[in-house]
Design brief:
Protein name: Esterase OVCA2
InterPro entries: AB_hydrolase_fold (IPR029058), FSH-like_dom (IPR005645), LovG (IPR050593)
Organism: Collichthys lucidus (Big head croaker)
Shape: globular
Largest sheet: 6 strands, parallel
Helix content: 25-40%
Mean pLDDT: 90
CATH class: Alpha Beta
Number of helices: 6
Low-confidence stretches: 49-66
Enzyme class: hydrolase
Structural class: alpha/beta
Radius of gyration: 16 Å
CATH architecture: 3-Layer(aba) Sandwich
GO molecular function, one term: carboxylesterase activity
Length: about 220
């Protein structure tokens, strides 16, 4: 059986290479079933931090994110910065990021599913909405995995949440997440009709302990 191909969408101040490093345990956990393919966001992030990196097991700071940090959109148009909690009328860079995903699908695809982390997970919800609105004919994701996802606080983005999405989704979040508190991830759940939840006791990272294997595998089994 061919492994499922999943496009991986990193968090703010990360890039594809760094996210690949930080999800080594997940790749190992799912290696027989899934091929994870990584891409980088098109927007360069200046100084200032939003997502403090942690090791995969949540045991404190991991590698620095300062090596070519990227983002999917900016909530502060003037400062070209992002905060998940920042209320804003409009954002900057989202169209460029959608175009980058469109290109990744053309060049590296096709993909069975899409996985996002933090700002990347919030972006994945938007991409799924565009797919279901038939605005992106290149997209044909059959499932989505959103780790530490949230609803964008940007007013212009609220149309993404008008209609609950039909795409099957797995929402993963940490009960001790200080960057995207779990209540922010829970607020995204009503936007998906077929939402499964995997919580873990840790912080802001992609969990991949053996205790989580069954939930990931049961979810992915539906698409193999």
């Amino acid at each position: 059986m061919a492994p499922l191909r999943v496009l991986c969408v990193h968090g703010y101040r990360q890039n594809g290479g760094l996210f690949r490093e930080k999800t080594g345990a997940l790749r190992k956990l799912l290696k027989k079933h899934v091929e994870l393919v990584y891409m980088s966001a098109p927007l360069d992030v200046r100084d200032g931090t939003e997502e403090a990196p942690e090791k995969e097991d949540g045991s404190g700071p991991g590698p620095r994110c300062d090596d070519d940090p990227k983002g999917w959109w900016f909530s502060d148009v003037q400062a070209r910065s992002f905060s998940a909690q920042q209320q804003c009328k409009e954002s900057l860079g989202l169209d460029e990021s959608v175009a980058a995903v469109r290109e990744a699908v053309k060049v590296q695809g096709p993909f069975d599913g899409i996985l996002g982390f933090s700002q990347g997970a919030a972006f994945v919800a938007m991409l799924c909405s565009l797919q279901e609105q038939k605005q992106e004919p290149e997209f044909s994701f059959r499932f989505a995995i959103l780790v530490a996802g949230f609803r964008s606080a940007c007013r212009k983005h609220q149309t993404f949440y008008d209609t609950p999405l039909l795409i099957p989704s797995l929402h993963v979040f940490g009960l001790e997440d200080r960057v995207i508190p779990d209540n922010m991830s829970r607020e995204l759940l009503p936007s998906f009709q077929d939402a499964q939840v995997l919580t873990h006791p840790g912080g802001h990272f992609v969990p991949a302990a053996s205790a989580h294997r069954q939930t990931y595998q049961d979810f992915l089994k539906r698409f193999q």
